[in-house]
Write a structure and sequence with these properties.
Bound molecules: iron/sulfur cluster
CATH class of the largest domain: Alpha Beta
Strand order of the largest sheet: 9-10-8-7-6-5-4-1-11
Number of strands: 16
CATH topology of the largest domain: TIM Barrel
Structural class: alpha/beta
Helix content: 40-55%
CATH architecture of the largest domain: Alpha-Beta Barrel
Distance between the termini: 23 Å
Shape: globular
CATH superfamily of the largest domain: Aldolase class I
Radius of gyration: 22 Å
Strand content: 15-25%
Length: 407
């Protein structure tokens, strides 16, 4: 049986400009975005109307335990705008006691006061999009903020944390950026730890075709670290952060004890979640679906939802549980991996199907199991750290080949 979700993701698509590596569903509003009389205000207001309409349209569900405002740049919204979205969510679902409420913030968009304002309306976790500390790197990847803005932002956020006004916070960094080497990356890690952030999200640069980086890469003009250097960098991240007390609880996530993100863990556990906003993905009843990535498409989709004309409605009818391959894909990202037999049984497989199919899966995964990339223990499969986590994509490809070979 598919259980109703207890988490919600709210997409705020506005940014000053598009960073060179980014292919998210966003609306660039220019340098004056967020200012009281900037031309972007009309776009923000009409988008928020759509977002409120979508939240109001959703069926009721149990109280939420995690809410995540992501983007885009949610910190381009004012406190009252976030508060009004929270009120709408609360009216619809209610919040569990101690619910984790995260807001993504971008260093070029707030002052210390603004952060305190967000906390007065219930936000208790901030996720700061730093990406890199060096000015040359920040310019090279098209970020709007510079080094001193980032350091100041970290200082403000950490101050709130130390004053116990904020439950926890996270800093994002990207590894394997153009021009990066082991030395320069080590300096980035040292600076990240120096901020005292209790949670670090370390993403690998992903080259997406329809971006500035995608086009430069195609022309051979992007000087990214080769595979061997990229592996050294990842190894460094793992060793360095481990030596500073961080635990890698998911491929890209490191936290000090007690600071893992509950919202992120929900995604990887295979639970369902509500998603609201342009381009947002949700899986309220198991199967995931995405909203249109343009504002016009999203508006039309909301209109259709209101008339219940779409096949994939927000409602539970016609839904099916999250497929097993997807459960494995998300579950394997976690340190604890997956208990495949349990998941398969929950998905309705018989013992005979499990026996036959998993024997075959072990053949697809043989070389990874033999060489210690993948570990099988007490019915659980998990990626070894860092070896297995570094090549998670190859392991997942074999899993998909296995999945496609099944009747
Ligand atoms: S700020 Fe974030 S969402 Fe906006 S363009 Fe840059 S990477 Fe993309």
């Amino acid at each position: 049986m598919v259980r109703p979700p207890r988490s919600a993701y709210v997409h705020i698509p506005f940014c000053h400009k598009r960073c060179f590596y980014c292919d998210f569903s966003i609306i660039p509003l220019g340098d004056s975005a967020g200012a009281p009389s900037s031309p972007g205000i009309t776009s923000i207001n009409s988008y928020l109307d759509l977002l409120h309409r979508e939240i109001s349209l959703s069926p009721k569900g149990p109280p939420l335990s995690t809410i995540y405002f992501g983007g885009g740049t949610p910190s381009l919204l004012k406190k009252d705008e976030i508060a009004s979205l929270l009120e709408n969510l609360q009216r619809k679902f209610g919040f569990q006691d101690g619910a984790e409420i995260t807001l993504e913030v971008d260093p070029a968009t707030f002052l210390e006061n603004d952060l305190e304002e967000y906390l007065t309306i219930g936000v208790n976790r901030l996720s700061l999009g730093g990406q890199a500390f060096e000015d040359t790197t920040l310019a090279l990847i098209g970020r709007k903020h510079n080094r001193s803005q980032l350091i100041e932002a970290c200082h403000w956020v950490n101050n709130l944390f130390k004053r116990r006004m904020l439950r926890t916070w996270s800093l994002d960094l990207i590894q394997n950026l153009p021009g990066m080497n082991l030395n320069s990356w080590t300096k980035e890690l040292e600076q990240a730890v120096h901020t005292e952030a209790p949670h670090l999200s370390i993403y690998d640069l992903s080259i997406e075709p329809d971006t500035v980086f995608g086009r430069r890469h195609k022309k051979g003009n992007l000087n990214i670290p080769n595979e061997a250097v990229a592996q050294e960098i990842d190894l460094k991240t793992n060793q360095f952060l481990k030596s500073r007390g961080f635990s890698r609880y998911e491929i890209s996530s490191y936290s000090l004890p007690g600071h893992a993100s509950r919202h992120n863990r929900m995604y990887w556990s295979g639970s369902g979640w509500w998603g609201f906003g342009m381009g947002a993905t949700s899986a309220p009843w198991g199967e995931r679906f995405s909203r249109p990535r343009t504002i016009a498409g999203y508006k039309k989709w909301i209109d259709q939802q209101e008339n219940q004309l779409l096949e994939k409605t927000l409602f539970a009818k016609d839904s099916s549980p999250m497929p097993l391959d997807e459960l494995l894909m998300v579950g394997l990202r976690r340190r604890e991996g997956v208990h495949i037999l349990e998941l398969a049984k929950q998905s309705g497989w018989t013992q005979q199907e499990c026996d036959e199919n998993f024997k075959l899966l072990d053949k697809y995964w043989l070389k990874f199991l033999k060489d210690g990339y993948l570990i099988k223990k007490n019915g659980r499969y998990f990626l070894s750290n860092p070896k297995g986590m570094q090549i998670s994509n190859q392991i997942l490809i074999e899993m998909y080949l296995w999945w496609d070979s099944l009747d």
